[in-house]
Each structure stands twice: as structure tokens, then as C-alpha cells.
């Protein structure tokens, strides 16, 4: 059996890594990938480990995290002996082929009595503006510009999501689609509306729980397809507000989920239009619903920007808020690890 070995930090995993590993996997019968991490890495090692498991289910994935481990030959006179020991610990069987996209692979392969296979454009300095020129540090500094080189789990990690929040008939659906068109991305429609059109508006706890969970499932399913930014018509926090209004309490499932990066709280100053699925058209109930919706955002402490005015004013205010979010997250220190 031909056994191969690849190691790296994969911080983050990108197209260069995928090309190298897929090529390596085609050249051996068994491929082991060692994910190397340090406690203070900007992207936690456990996250990168899961990326590799999700992306390469046919490979053997190992993990090494030791703050005392030397990172460069200059760090220790025993650098190569230490890394030879680490590799043999995670791969006790003989290694036939060691794959790497950098020169260190030659010396490590020699010490492991393996055949060095230099893969990828970086070895020859080729394709500097494409896959061959990719580096983890450059991507971490500006993931927005490197989006096309990121695989699905890394896009899930970096993507930003914006949720429109507010009571009935404040223009969430129209604004969500307009924002998605403006940012050339996808939007997630409101599941609750489809549910009520199919089953009626007399919702019980089980209906509301299903609506909230389904909304969140659709948001997560759409993340890999978004263009850096995902726009959602609503999420389970709005279903929580509906629950408070309709059944007098909020099921735990509706607040225990992955929160979005920004919530746009649309004011109830928009004209009410009854399209057949509206429930709280009475002004007093509408005002109370608005208060409940705002309270849900306050209680969950999610980042919120209030959006009011006519439809064009709402669009401009929403754009400004989203642009501010993007600018803050494109900095080298974001997203938070």
C-alpha cells in the first residue's frame, strides 16, 4: 500500500490546499493529513480540524497542538528531530510519499525516508495571481477579496449575515430582495409566511417552534451560496416575538441559535397593508408587537441598527449600516477567533 502524508496549518483552508491534497490523494492509496495548531492562532485549531474532516472524509485526519513545538528551524537546534518525532507519532507506518508545496518538504521527507513530491504553483513561483500565489496570511488580512478561493466550510466561517427584523407590513421582504440585488448575493425568504399560507395563521407552540427552526435551517443552508454577505428576510428571533404575542411565552429553541452579524430593526411607521396573512393590524396591537420585537433584540444583545422612514430612506439607511459592518470585518483583526 502506498501511503502519503501532508501537514499544514490550513489557516484558513483555501484552493491551494485543496489542489495539493486532492492531487496527493490521487497518487496514494491512503493519505494522512496532519493539522498543526497553536493555542493563540487567529483561527482556532479545532475549527480547522473540523474543516479538514468535512472536506476530506476519505483521508485520515490527525491533529497536533503543542505551544512548545518549534515553528522554524531557527527556533531550536533540534527542529528537524522534533518534527520527525511528531510525524512518526501521528503516522507510525512507513510513509512512501510526503507531499508539500514548500521547500521544507525535501528535508522532512529525507528524515522520514519518504519520497518528496513537491506539489503546487508555489514551489516554482507559478500562477502568482491565482492558486499558486495564495497564502493564509493574505486571506486572513482580506478574506473579502479572496472569496472565490475559499471552500464551503471556510465561507461559512467568514460570511456575514444580515437579518431584517420587524412586525408585519414594514417592507422586510421587499427590502431584503433589494439589498440582495444591490450586493449581488442571495436572500433567504420568510418561511413563516409560506407555513401560514399552507396551514393557516392559528399557530400553536409546535407551529412556532417549527417555523423558527426551519427559518434557521434555511439560513444555514444558504450560507455557502452567498456572495460574502447573506440577507435574511427574518430569523427565529422574530418568531420569538410572534410567540410572545400569540401564545404568551417564547420557546427556548427560538433564542438558542447562531445569531447574525447585524439586525436591521424596521420601524412600524410604514403603512399597514393587509394581504390576507396579517394578524395584528389593530393599531394598539401593532404598537405592542413593535415593542415586543424590539425587546427580543435587546434581551439577546444582538447588534442592531434602527431603520425608519419611507422605503427609499430605509434602503439607504440599511446600505449604510451594512457597509459599516463590512468595513469593520474586512480589517486584519476580524473576524474574531
From TrEMBL:
Pfam families: AAA_28. Gene3D superfamilies: HUPs (3.40.50.620), P-loop containing nucleotide triphosphate hydrolases (3.40.50.300). Residues 162-314 form the NadR/Ttd14 AAA domain. This is AAA family ATPase. It comes from Sphingomonas glaciei. InterPro entries: Cyt_trans-like, NAD_biosynth-regulator, NadR/Ttd14_AAA_dom, P-loop_NTPase, Rossmann-like_a/b/a_fold.
Amino acid at each position: 500500500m502506498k501511503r502519503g502524508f501532508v501537514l499544514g496549518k490550513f489557516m484558513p483552508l483555501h484552493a491551494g490546499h485543496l489542489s495539493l491534497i486532492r492531487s496527493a490523494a490521487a497518487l496514494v492509496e491512503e493519505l494522512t493529513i496532519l493539522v498543526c495548531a497553536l493555542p493563540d492562532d487567529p483561527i482556532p485549531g479545532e475549527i480547522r480540524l473540523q474543516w479538514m474532516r468535512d472536506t476530506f472524509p476519505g483521508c485520515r485526519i490527525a491533529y497536533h497542538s503543542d505551544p512548545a513545538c518549534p515553528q522554524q528551524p531557527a527556533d531550536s537546534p533540534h527542529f528537524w528531530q522534533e518534527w520527525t518525532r511528531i510525524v512518526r507519532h501521528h503516522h507510525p507506518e512507513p510513509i512512501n510519499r510526503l507531499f508539500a508545496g514548500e521547500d521544507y518538504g525535501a528535508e522532512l521527507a529525507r528524515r522520514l525516508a519518504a519520497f518528496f513530491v513537491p506539489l503546487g504553483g508555489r514551489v516554482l513561483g507559478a500562477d502568482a495571481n491565482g492558486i499558486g500565489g495564495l497564502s493564509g496570511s493574505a486571506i486572513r488580512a482580506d478574506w473579502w477579496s479572496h472569496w472565490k478561493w475559499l471552500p464551503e466550510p471556510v465561507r461559512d466561517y467568514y460570511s456575514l449575515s444580515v437579518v431584517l427584523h420587524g412586525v408585519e407590513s414594514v417592507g422586510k421582504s421587499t427590502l431584503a430582495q433589494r439589498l440582495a440585488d444591490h450586493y449581488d448575493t442571495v436572500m433567504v425568504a420568510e418561511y413563516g409566511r409560506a407555513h401560514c399560507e399552507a396551514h393557516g395563521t392559528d399557530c400553536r407552540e409546535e407551529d412556532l417552534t417549527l417555523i423558527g427552526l426551519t427559518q434557521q435551517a434555511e439560513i444555514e443552508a444558504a450560507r455557502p451560496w452567498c456572495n460574502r454577505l447573506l440577507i435574511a428576510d427574518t430569523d427565529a428571533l422574530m418568531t420569538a416575538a410572534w410567540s410572545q404575542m400569540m401564545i404568551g411565552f417564547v420557546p427556548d429553541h427560538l433564542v438558542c441559535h447562531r445569531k447574525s452579524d447585524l439586525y436591521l430593526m424596521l420601524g412600524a411607521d410604514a403603512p399597514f397593508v393587509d394581504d390576507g396573512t396579517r394578524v395584528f393590524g389593530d393599531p394598539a396591537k401593532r404598537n405592542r408587537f413593535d415593542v415586543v420585537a424590539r425587546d427580543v433584540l435587546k434581551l439577546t444583545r444582538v447588534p442592531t441598527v434602527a431603520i425608519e422612514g419611507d422605503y427609499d430612506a430605509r434602503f439607504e439607511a440599511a446600505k449604510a449600516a451594512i457597509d459599516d459592518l463590512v468595513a469593520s470585518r474586512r480589517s486584519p483583526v476580524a473576524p474574531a477567533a
